[in-house]
Design brief:
The complex is a heterotrimer of chains A (about 350), B (about 350) and C (about 375). Chain A has twelve helices and no strands. With about 350 residues, chain A is mostly helical. Chain A has one domain: MetI-like fold. The radius of gyration of chain A is 25 Å and the shape is globular. Chain C has about 375 residues and is of the alpha/beta class. In chain C, helix 2 crosses helix 10, helix 2 crosses helix 11 and helix 10 packs antiparallel against helix 12. Chain C has two domains: about 180 residues, D-Maltodextrin-Binding Protein, domain 2 (3-Layer(aba) Sandwich); about 140 residues, Periplasmic binding protein-like II (D-Maltodextrin-Binding Protein, domain 2), CATH 3.40.190. The chains are: A mainly alpha (about 350), B mainly alpha (about 350), C alpha/beta (about 375). Chains in contact: A-B, A-C, B-C. Chains A and B meet through helix 2, helix 3, helix 4, helix 5 and helix 6 of A and helix 3, helix 5, helix 6, helix 7 and helix 8 of B.
Chain lengths: ~350, ~350, ~375
């Protein structure tokens, strides 16, 4: 089965993702060399256009460097200070910078991972449904609705979490805590459901639209011929999806997940509204007052932080930045490793 | 973006009748209701969950017996995909229903055309005109910066870039995608604090914060779209002697304009509802501020948050503000669709 | 057009309501003077600071701008700390703050003003200890300071605890666990409650007064709205919030001496009246050292006093005039009555004696040079 499809793919020209880029690099120069130039206007245009786009690319580097530099500039006093500097900062309650940031990093990552675990499979499901299962009209309508949802301000997700989600999950959490409470994961639930699990669920719903929208776009671009080739060889719809759609969309799925992760890591208002914060490192998912995310912590304390406090908060922001940097590096490494074995190439 | 009718699966030798899945669904719903009634109480959530599970089991078993294992797998996948979709639809629809339901109460022409000057206590007048203008300003500034910057960077990555610079930019764009909104806010806050002193407040600061968030989203989606332009088109254009830059503008961008517009819309949608960076950079005002470069300015998400925080009748204004935001995005989406339909080459997918 | 009319109508009706309250109170001798008699002011000033004052300030701004349409006042509820900071670095002309400035801040503020600083206690508001016990939300449960302290520190864990039953003999207390709720952000409300607990129940409350809740691992919410969502979100919760925001929730009658006093503006004003000025108070710095452990009859001791901070002299004459006009309005009987309306902020109006001293301080505001 697999062999047949691969053979068919190879026989065709390859409009696939990486094929397009690498081929563009080689053929464009070859084409340009082989053909006589159209004239000086074309050459000037080329130069300006290449300059503009290269400049934009470099500008991105500059902006990113500026973000890091300005944050570092403000965070430097806090990063280099001794523990006693922070004695006067109320919200650090006597902890040093690293002792204070560590639980926050843990809480941030935990809530985002919970959100991704819930959201990514669901998003793939929705995207597949819209791109390959739903009738055309319905699919367009659904795509539209989901695009809209990406615009709902996070405050509203917070309100929704409080008014709609918490009463709904509360009985489930109670059940988990009483029946499975011997597992630390589920121990010690206390109503209302203002714990890291609820925060993760709200984050999952928040990032669902943006992940789905991105994945759907990629799925819709799956080469028609691949799909038809698969079906023509007698594949069921699911086999066709596994052979043609998913391999083609894999890097798209990962980058969509990264997009979602970025949003989840930095989401502020919704977490601030649905989570009872705490500074512990543990996996009591249902207990209130155990975890807090860096972003929500910044928003919560910035108004009343003195100048030392602001430095510490900005330092935590810089660390959040570093965490996202690290996560992205790992993701890219994973994509590159997987790409070598990917059938889509 | 057009959606294709999925190609029909091939005929199989022995297959279930068309009505079979529906019959199985009805059967499992009845079974679940019965089971729930027998053991505990019937709740909608419980019924939904049990029906889903029993349907998946039943249809897979049935298909396996009648049609064979491969088709059974297909049936199971269909059931799961549909289930994922329905499951995700519940929170999203409830959210939309809450916003529309609660928002319509306070939503009126008066709401759109007044600001909050002189409104206090339990007065139900007052509106979001100042916040709408602020949101347009802030998002507009962000778009002015990030759309051209994003498109050009994407063109660089797809059409021009090579070697280490390209790899570096690709990596850093990914990193930038992950910049948390609060960090972008802190960045803009710090930049203007250092450059202009603490007294300077304007829509520009918020615009800078949002531009940092928006640019990578634009780049990612435009890049994705440009890569999908078949190489044959580029080669055909070169073969006709068209210079590279014109090929990019007239062939590559033109072919992918629909996707680019959608990508830009997603990028705008992502930043237009950002609350935290605006809360810390531009603050809130009660009056209309027409000057984007001087003075405090209200924005819709911050307006929503402040009104909600005030409680009482102000909460109605918060919901109406959220509804306004969604309507704005809806209108933008509509415009984008018209634009892309107008520009897109005929017959493109 | 309709907008103008409706706003004017609202203004008229608000004035009407005000006139009614004024007559009901017998009217003050100084009600008419101050802002009303002066010629119209023009200019723009900005303020920022405590969010506790936000609702009252909006009422004041609206009232002030009704009589002075040429002037414009804005207030950004950024939080007390940021408000003081922005006042000191010159971003705003006045600030609202739940806490008096410390010595260091005061010195910096005097430098910014080039002279004396005004700290005026113009917003006095009771803080209610709120709870969510369906069926009991209309009765004010009687709780002594020591019981409140034990509940919040987690020593009393059930609503039918004998200590609670003792002071509420006629109430059928439910068999529910107590869920104490606190503010998760740094707030003046928390600071006032902890200050009260530390002063009134020192044996049962071992923590220092602080703007941040000292106990970790609790249910909590950001801002007053967050607090209300948490308390409203489950049965058996107990928390604290600005009295004007209590709504449908129950509120505690706090033990003072032998009595149990539910919150009211009058009871809050009573505790301010028996409180001495703070140590560093002067003619312009009218800070108050609240008598938390008072046993005076009818006084409600959990009170938030939020200060309006301004300079005595401004470089710009326009700023000086508008700040003076605005603060005079706020201190006037009309302004205080407006903030006292339950649907505005439910604040306690300042006493006549305090008003005289406040007005004397405001008189001194002038343009430098």
């Amino acid at each position: 089965m697999e062999n047949h499809v691969t053979a068919t793919q190879n026989a065709e020209p390859k409009p696939g993702r990486s094929g397009a880029s690498s081929a563009a690099d080689t053929t464009s120069t070859a084409g340009a060399a082989a053909l006589p130039r159209t004239g000086s206007s074309g050459r000037l245009g080329n130069r300006i256009f290449a300059g503009l786009s290269t400049g934009s690319g470099v500008l991105i580097l500059v902006i990113l460097a500026a973000v890091a530099a300005f944050l570092l500039y403000r965070a430097w006093p806090a990063l280099t200070a001794g523990a006693d500097t922070f004695a006067e900062v109320d919200f650090m309650s006597g902890r040093g910078l690293w002792a204070w940031v560590a639980p926050l990093v843990f809480g941030t990552v935990l809530s985002s991972v919970l959100a991704l675990v819930v959201a990514v499979p669901l998003s793939i499901g929705i995207a597949l449904f819209i791109s390959h299962y739903a009738p055309r009209r319905l699919a367009q309508l659904l795509g539209y609705v989901i695009d809209l949802l990406a615009a709902i301000p996070s405050v509203i997700f917070g309100l929704w979490g409080i008014q709609w989600l918490m009463p709904l999950v509360s009985p489930v959490f109670t059940w988990l805590s009483t029946r499975l409470g011997f597992i630390p994961l589920f121990a010690g639930y206390q109503a209302p459901a203002r714990n890291i699990m609820t925060a993760g669920l709200v984050l999952a719903v928040m990032i669902l639209p943006i992940i789905t929208a991105t994945i759907r776009e990629v799925f819709l671009q799956t080469p028609r011929l691949h799909e038809e080739a698969s079906l023509a060889l007698g594949a069921t719809r699911w086999e066709m999806i596994r052979q043609a759609v998913l391999p083609f969309g894999r890097s798209g799925i990962i980058s969509a997940a990264m997009l979602g992760l970025g949003r989840a890591l930095g989401e502020t208002m919704a977490v601030l509204m649905v989570l009872s914060p705490g500074y512990a490192i543990n996996l009591f998912l249902l207990q209130p007052g155990q975890h807090q995310s860096i972003a929500a912590n910044i928003a919560s304390h910035l108004p009343e932080a003195g100048s030392t406090g602001v430095d510490a908060l900005i330092a935590s922001g810089l660390i959040l930045f570093a965490v996202t940097f690290g996560v992205n590096l790992i993701a890219r490494w994973v994509i590159n490793r997987r790409a070598e074995f990917s059938g889509a190439n | 973006m057009s959606v294709l009718a999925p190609p029909l699966p091939v005929r199989r030798s022995r297959k279930l009748a068309r009505w079979a899945p529906y019959a199985v669904l009805a059967g499992s719903a009845a079974f679940s209701a019965g089971l729930l009634a027998l053991l505990t109480t019937v709740t909608i959530a419980g019924l939904f969950a049990l029906t889903a599970v029993s349907y998946a089991v039943a249809i897979t078993t049935l298909s396996r017996v009648v049609e064979g294992p491969r088709w059974a797998k297909d049936r199971l996948a269909t059931a799961l995909v549909t289930l994922a979709f329905l499951l995700a639809l519940i929170p999203l629809v409830s959210l939309l229903a809450i916003v529309v339901g609660d928002g319509l109460g306070g939503f009126s022409w008066d709401f759109l055309s007044t600001d909050m000057v002189g409104v206090f206590g339990s007065m139900t007048s007052g509106g979001a005109l100042h916040a709408i203008i602020g949101t347009v300003y802030v998002t507009g500034i962000a778009s002015l910066v990030s759309i051209p910057l994003g498109i050009f960077t994407a063109i660089y990555l797809v059409e021009y870039g090579q070697g280490r610079l390209k790899r570096g930019i690709t990596l850093l764009v990914d990193v930038m995608t992950g910049i948390p909104s609060i960090v972008a806010g802190l960045f803009a806050y710090t930049v203007f604090l250092v450059l202009f002193g603490p007294a300077y407040k304007s829509a520009l600061i918020g615009g800078v914060a949002l531009a940092v968030l928006m640019t990578p989203v634009v780049i990612r989606s435009v890049e994705e779209m440009l890569r999908l332009v078949p190489n044959e088109l580029r080669e055909a254009s070169y073969a006709l002697g068209v210079p590279k830059w014109l090929t990019v503008v007239k062939v590559v961008l033109r072919t992918s304009v629909a996707g680019i517009t959608t990508g830009v819309m997603i990028a705008i949608a992502r930043v237009i509802g950002e609350t935290a960076p605006l809360l810390m950079t531009v603050g809130i005002a009660q009056n209309v501020n027409w000057d984007a470069f001087d003075g405090r300015i209200a924005t819709l998400p911050v307006f929503v948050y402040r009104q909600y925080a005030q409680g009482g009748v102000a909460a109605d204004r918060a919901w109406a503000g959220a509804l306004t935001l969604i309507i704005i995005v809806m209108l933008l989406n509509l415009i984008a669709r018209l634009v892309s339909r107008y520009f897109a080459p005929k017959g493109a997918r | 057009m309709t907008r103008v009319i409706s706003r004017r109508l609202a203004g008229i009706s608000a004035l009407g309501a005000l006139a009614l309250t004024l007559t009901a109170c017998g009217g003050g001798s100084q009600a008419a003077d101050g802002s009303d008699s002066g010629d119209e002011l023009t200019g723009t000033i900005a303020g920022s600071g405590a969010s506790s004052q936000e609702n009252a300030v909006q009422g004041w701004i609206a009232g002030f701008m009704e009589t002075n349409p040429g002037a414009s006042v804005s207030y950004d509820p950024t939080g007390s700390g940021t408000g003081r900071e922005q006042f000191i670095n010159g971003t705003v002309q006045f600030a609202g703050s739940d806490a008096a400035m410390d010595a260091e801040e005061l010195a910096a503020a005097q430098e910014r003003c080039g002279g004396d600083v005004l700290e005026l206690p113009l917003y006095i508001s009771p803080i209610a200890v709120i709870y969510n016990l369906p069926g009991l939300n209309d009765t004010h449960l009687n709780l002594s300071p020591s019981v409140i302290a034990q509940i919040f520190s987690g020593e009393i864990t059930a609503w039918d605890d004998p200590a609670i039953a003792e002071t509420n003999p006629d109430v059928d207390l439910p068999d529910l666990p107590i869920i104490p709720v606190n503010r998760s952000d740094d707030s003046g409300t928390t600071e006032n409650l902890t200050e009260y607990l530390a002063a009134a129940a020192p044996e049962d409350w071992s923590h220092e007064p602080a703007g941040l809740w000292p106990i970790e691992g609790t249910q909590s919410g950001a801002q007053t709205s967050g607090m209300l969502e948490v308390v409203g979100g489950a049965e058996g919760t107990i928390g604290y919030a600005d009295a004007s925001r209590v709504g449908d929730l129950g509120s505690v009658a706090v033990g003072v001496g032998e009595e149990f006093v539910p919150f009211s503006p009058e009871a809050a004003a009573a505790v301010v009246d028996v409180s001495p000025p703070a140590e560093d108070a002067s003619d312009t710095i009218l800070t108050i050292d609240l008598a938390r452990d008072t046993e005076a009859s009818g006084a409600y001791p959990i009170v938030l006093v939020s200060y309006s901070i301004a300079c005595q002299s401004y470089e710009s004459a326009e700023h000086a005039e508008v700040v003076q006009g605005y603060l005079s309005y706020v201190a006037s009987e009309e302004g205080q009555q407006r903030a006292a309306q339950p649907d505005v902020a439910g604040a306690a109006p300042i006493s006549g004696d305090l008003r005289e001293r406040v007005e004397a301080a405001i008189e001194g505001i002038s343009a430098a040079g």
